[in-house]
Amino acid sequence: MERIASLVIVGSGNVAEALAVAAAAAEGVELRGIAARNAARAAAIAAMAGDVWHGPVAEAPEADLYLIAVSDRSVGEVSRQLPRRGAAVVAHTAGSVAVDALAEDGFAARGVIYPFQTFTAGRRIDFTEVPLFVEGSDEATTRRLEAFAACLSRAVYRASSQRRRTIHLAGVLACNFVNALYSMAADELAVREGLPAEVLHPLIGETALKAMAMEHPRRGQTGPAVRGDRAVAERHEAMLAGEPLQRDIYRLLTEYIWETSRKI
User: Fold this and answer.
1) What are 17-46's pLDDT values in tens digits?
2) In b/e form, how buried is each residue of 63-102, taking b as 16+ CB within 10 angstroms?
3) Would the pTM count as exceeding 0.90?
4) Beta-carbon count within 10 A of 104 CB
5) What is the pLDDT of residues 161-196, one digit of tens each?
């Protein structure tokens, strides 16, 4: 099996930045450049990764792997801009995009390496702990991508496009939606009582630690909804009467918690 020893990262967003920094620090991997439409961001990421090459997608240098880290809707368009090199693998990092979205012409193999984590520009995490879900257009490509992914992370799994969509949905629920609730809580404290978001930090930290420590997060559920305390829930809904969207979210989550907590 031919090993993937070199790569070009295509994109200049948060995922591209995290991958570039991780690849630059990994053993057995040569990061040859950052190819992106946003020249300023590509240059900034290239500097973070050891001053590697950076430039337009169509001018990307030769590599064993072109790893596309762009928005879901841009994957196919960007893959068609890459120089056609038949021996190379082209892969994307999107959770909800099928491997077939990649342009077929000009590449020997296609695939996906989906990092199951939230990334923010300038924020460093231990990439070796990030689960990477891999899919290839054939068995040989899958194995090559698995071996490459193992250079970046200790947690590498196979996942079909359908399985990856389910994983991505779970990620949206566990990360994006939960963070939106943190934001809602912070806004309520600030607007109603003039309190800073830092007041929430011990509660957020313990909630996350407890969820990770238990066999299932539901076993750590607390609050008026799990107790069926309608009096408290109704008072909270009344407080949110002037914010119908927040009130509806509160009501639906209260119902969900009550219904699911009875199944433990």
Assistant:
1) 999 999 999 999 999 999 999 999 999 999
2) bbbbbbbbeeebbeebbebbeebeebbbbbbbbebbbebb
3) yes
4) 10
5) 999 999 999 999 999 999 999 999 999 999 999 999
HEC sequence for 190-235: HHHHCCCHHHHHHHHHHHHHHHHHCCCHHHHCCCHHHHCCHHHHHH
Alpha helices (runs of H) in 5-160, residue ranges in sequence order = 14-25, 39-48, 75-81, 139-152
Measured in whole angstroms, how far is the alpha carbon of residue 260 from the centre of its chain?
27
CB neighbours of 31 closer than 8 A, spacing ≥ 6? 6, 7, 8, 9, 20, 23, 24, 49, 50, 52
Torsion of CA 32, 36, 41, 47, to 10 degrees: 10
